[in-house]
Q: What sequence folds into this?
């Protein structure tokens, strides 16, 4: 009888201990979830901006700017919940084979067959695998760069990202010459290089590609039906010319993942612009990000006209609902991050060291 009572007591104590531990684990999990939710709420509040899109937005002041490492790390971790730039920056050769059928990113009802030419140019591994940089420059193409004298400052960064194969040599004093990662929309081939139909256009294109040196050339090849023709022309041209370029083609999930991140943080974009996309990717491998050439308004704060691109006469209706991007809203978001120390947004002249 005494033995039975002793066993009963031990059994009761064991059950109580199990119940206690279960409650502790539950409390710990709830606390962790609450902390993560709180962090995300703080981040969202830091990113949320007023939705107005007037061109009278004052430029950000760079005087006294300092990086906020804690916020940089928080943003990096939050973005990693949606995408990993190291992986999503490009599909790799082992993930596809010639003849594979894939759906277009923005036109899911249509499909594309992977050509042997495209497959030959896919990288074996991600071009950003195990890369990390102290300072990075993301260079947009706004005419705000003209007469800025920012070329030397841009070139001083450890890693430089440029958009849409913009010309550099003729504007070196304002935009610099170095490049480590260059994007190119397929439409550039038709709009700037005449579809490579003329010898003069082909020669001009070759010289521009040679100037990339060891830079990664990043082409969004799987966006919409029609763009694949330009991509195939470029790919065939690169192989025929024997150009040794480091090619990259973004993963099929990248654009939607980037948009999802910004929508979650209360930035109601339709489609991320190349500049916003590159900033989002850069958070993965850059400790300090500097933005240049971001100014989505037809005039500066003094009323002087500002070209859409520093290198051509192309026009863009920034406030049109038909436009694919909401650039003024993106700018205000980046400006808010600038004042928090998450990035540095330069829209004025650069001072010589």
A:
């Amino acid at each position: 009888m005494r033995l039975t009572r002793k066993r009963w007591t031990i059994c009761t104590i064991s059950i109580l201990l199990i119940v206690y531990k279960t409650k502790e684990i539950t409390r710990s999990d709830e606390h962790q979830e609450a902390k993560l939710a709180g962090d995300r709420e703080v981040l969202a509040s830091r990113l949320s901006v007023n939705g107005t899109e007037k061109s009278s937005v004052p430029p950000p002041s760079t005087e006294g700017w300092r990086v906020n490492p804690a916020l940089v790390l928080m943003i990096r971790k939050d973005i990693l919940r949606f995408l990993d730039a190291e992986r999503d920056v490009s599909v790799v050769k082992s993930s596809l084979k010639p003849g594979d059928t894939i759906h277009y990113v923005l036109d899911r009802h249509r499909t594309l067959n992977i050509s042997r030419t495209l497959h030959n140019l896919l990288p074996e591994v991600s071009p950003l695998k195990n890369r990390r940089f102290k300072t990075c420059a993301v260079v947009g193409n706004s005419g705000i760069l003209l007469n800025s004298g920012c070329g030397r400052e841009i070139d001083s960064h450890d890693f430089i990202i440029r958009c849409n194969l913009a010309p550099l040599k003729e504007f070196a004093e304002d935009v610099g010459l170095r490049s480590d990662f260059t994007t190119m929309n397929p439409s550039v081939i038709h709009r700037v290089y005449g579809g490579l139909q003329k010898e003069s256009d082909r020669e001009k294109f070759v010289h521009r590609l040679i100037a990339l040196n060891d830079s990664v050339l990043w082409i969004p090849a799987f966006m919409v039906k029609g763009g694949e023709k330009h991509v195939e022309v470029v790919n065939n041209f690169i192989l025929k010319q024997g150009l040794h370029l480091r090619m990259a083609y973004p993963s099929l999930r990248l654009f939607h993942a980037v948009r999802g991140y910004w929508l979650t943080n209360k930035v109601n974009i339709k489609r991320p612009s190349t500049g916003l996309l590159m900033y989002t990717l850069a958070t993965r491998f850059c400790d300090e990000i500097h933005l240049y050439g971001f100014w989505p308004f037809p005039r500066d704060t003094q009323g002087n006209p500002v070209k859409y691109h520093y290198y051509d006469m192309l026009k863009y209706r920034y406030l049109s609902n038909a436009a694919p991007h909401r650039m003024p809203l993106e700018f205000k978001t980046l400006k808010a991050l600038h004042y928090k120390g998450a990035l540095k947004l330069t829209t004025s002249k650069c001072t010589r060291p």
